[in-house]
Amino acid sequence: MQLSDDLQWRGLIKDHTFEDITWLDTPRSFYLGADCSSDSLTIGNLAIFLVARRLAEAGWKPVLLVGGATSLIGDPGGKEEERQLKSHKEIERNVAGIKAQVQRLFDGRDVTVVNNYDWFKELGYLEFLRDVGKHYSMTELVQRDFIATRMNEGGSGISYAEFSYNLIQGYDYWHLFKEFGVELQIGGSDQWGNMLSGAPLIRKKEAKEAHAFSMPLVINKTTGRKFGKSEDGAVWLDPAKTTPTQFYQFWINADDAGVEDYLKIFTFLSREEIESIIEVHQTTPAARVAQTRLAEAVTELVHGPEETKIAQQVTEVLIGKTAIDKVSDEVIAATRHEIANVIAAGDASIIDTLVAAGLAESNNEARRLLNGNAIAINGQKVNRETFEAGDFVAGRLLLRKGKKFKDSALVEIDRI
Questions:
Q1: Mean of the pLDDT values across residues 64-74?
Q2: Is the N end or the C end of the chain the one with fewer CB atoms within 10 Å?
Q3: Greatest C-alpha distance within the chain
Q4: pLDDT for 406
Q5: Beta strand 380-381 pairing with 29-34
Q6: Domain count of the fold of the chain
Q7: Side-chain-facing half-sphere of 124: CA atoms under 13 Å
Q8: Residue-range definition of the domain harbouring residue 134
Q9: The domain spanning residue 20 has which CATH number?
């Protein structure tokens, strides 16, 4: 399958400056920019980085730009209000974090990573205005969607700094065109206004053609909202912010309506395999075959096979599919990071333990939960108020309130 056909089948092409998408089938050099307002990418960023990897696997030469300069200004694209400026030190730390994640996503492939601060730090303001600013029409700039929205009645307004972001990104593309022969810029559709700044500048300055294309925003079809948020907020690629188990469980809980799209966008599974998975999913959606395969593929892509295996085993423990004495110490250690961990005597009060674990706010609430048949030990409902020796398996038990993973606690016997 040609690259353009695959991208189109996966729903990864929205806006583009070239007339025919088959233009993509001749490999050249391209670039993708990464905002460094945080030290980690989120799954909201992941989709376009996987498009970049698809281009690389089709023979394109990738240039990944980390925005050490642009992140000091703040990208106004898709934002309703002005960003808070960050310090040089914070941006430097974020750049290092993003670089490491980008290289992991490309799995050892040859990728050129550049930082636009390296060329902007020596660029004079007058030089920038003469070489770049002179080539932009204010009339055109103020009509771009995200600028017009901010400037119109009811908008929050926009500073000169964020307004100038368009010009800075245009300069980036021109610089990469000259230094690396870049002929394509890619990004999310919320970046399309910014992305329209580079190709015209190259045409005016170099009398040569360069292009851009965007992918659509990924939408949760069940909620109608932008995909990529959990109950606790953003889902990060950094395991210190979102653990591999939490990451895995996010995908396991993907909505039925969107899971086919997510398989196409976020995995490198073939068309044949995805169609086979969806056929099974449509027959028995309760089995969550599609979500399970999605979670495996994306977690392995981001965190590697070993962390994926641990995440799977922790999940199986938490849902009661695997007994707590059947997993390794490594899985137990990972489980402690996911739920409350309490040390208790073998004949301790279940009521006191529920309160200590944060599963109940008071003894009265804990007693009501027990009497209401809402508490389980190792998957078995209990309504007594004291642990028994047989509850502990290999010195541990899983105490749960209700059905949610986070409403569980690992109770370990006090061996002192």
A1: 83
A2: C
A3: 82
A4: 82
A5: unpaired
A6: 3
A7: 3
A8: 3-215
A9: 3.40.50.620
- 71 and 89 together in one domain: yes
Q: Where among 192, 215, 238 does a domain terminate?
A: 215
Residue 258: count other Cβ atoms within 10 Å of its Cβ. 17
Instruction: Let me know: does 357 contact 399? Beta carbons within 8 Å.
Output: yes
Which residues are registered as beta bridge partners of 398? 410
The closest of 102, 101, 110, 95 to 59, measured between CA atoms, is 110
The pair phi, psi for residue 396, each rounded to 5°, is: -140, 160
Whether the Cβ atoms of residue 67 and residue 33 lie closer than 8 Å to each other: yes
Looking at the fold, whether 45 and 151 belong to one and the same domain comes out as yes
CATH of the domain at 378: 3.10.290.10
CA–CA distance, 57 with 107 (Å, rounded to integer): 11
Instruction: Write down the pLDDT at residue 132.
Output: 83
**One domain, residues 194 and 253:** no
Does residue 116 sit in the same domain as residue 176?
yes
Instruction: Give the helix/strand (H/E) hosting 91.
Output: helix 88-105
Phi, psi of 409 (to 5 degrees): -145, 140
Residue 296 tokens read as 């495996």
Same domain, 324 and 359: no
pTM for the whole thing? Answer: 0.88
Band of pLDDT at residue 308, cut at 50, 70 and 90: very high
Residue 359: name the closest of 409, 296, 293 by CA.
409
Q: Using the 8-state DSSP alphabet, how is residue 226 labeled? A: B
Question: Could you tell me if residue 223 is inside a domain?
Answer: no
Q: Which of 338, 335, 250, 330 is nearest to 296 (CA)?
A: 250
Our CA dihedral for 97, 103, 104, 105, rounded to 10 degrees, sits at 110
The answer to whether 12 touches 265, Cβ cutoff 8 Å, is yes
